[in-house]
Amino acid sequence: MRYSSIIQLLLVPCTIVSVTPFTINPRKSKSSFVTSVRTPYRYPRSTEELNNPRTRFSSLEMAYSKYGNGRSSSRYAASDRSKRQERVGHVVRTELATILHKGTLIKNDDDPIEDELRRRINIINADISPDLRQARVTVSIMAGKDRKEDIIAKRRAYAWLVRCTKSIRHALAQKMKHMKASPDVTFVQVDVGAAVDVMQLIEKVSKGYKRDDLFDMELEDDDEDDDEWVDEIEDGEEGTKSEDDDWVDFDGGEEGEFPEVDMENET
């Protein structure tokens, strides 16, 4: 009886309806996945997301936004490097300002400058290379009371910085022992005061400022000089010379006279 019921069930036609969507596993069937699926494959979170054309390429967009246009590094690598450079640059700028202000850590300085001039050196910026091995330090020397001596003082201060670069780098390495390496320092001088003056002049011109014209000055006539002019003749006597005294007739006539010419009879 039991076997007969099993045989009847096998003879009855039946239809199997699949209610679950068919998905392809790319790990098991890589070739079939490539040939059958045209869009980038990803496991859908829901049926609505699968049917939405805007979300079908979200995985590809996420991959490109994370790794860049075909690059293996993250798109945040550039910003991370810039932040790291800014942090190291801030440390270099702070430590250099302390070293220049104190001046005690600078060794082997055969020709030191005055303490007052050394303290006038300001560290404007420290630009660090991506490998953290080079530091381009921008400095500015403050102006003193005497403008005539400022030019010479600024040259002496910058020459001292260039001459003592190795000693300053050694002092910087002692301050930055917590880091792996200390960058090589290169000093570049800028004139902030001159830049501020130019900005102020541009602001004045934009507001309608006009420079005084130096050529509008009125020249006073010296009448006294005109009265002192005295005409002298050959014998040294003072007076005036008549125009007839120097006339000479080159045609053989008498001195001071022109020969008479008859214009009517002349052909």
UniProtKB/TrEMBL annotation:
Residues 1-21 form the signal peptide. InterPro entries: KH_dom-like_a/b, RbfA, RbfA_dom_sf. SUPFAM superfamilies: Ribosome-binding factor A, RbfA. Residues 218-267 are annotated as: Disordered. Keywords: Signal. This is Ribosome-binding factor A.
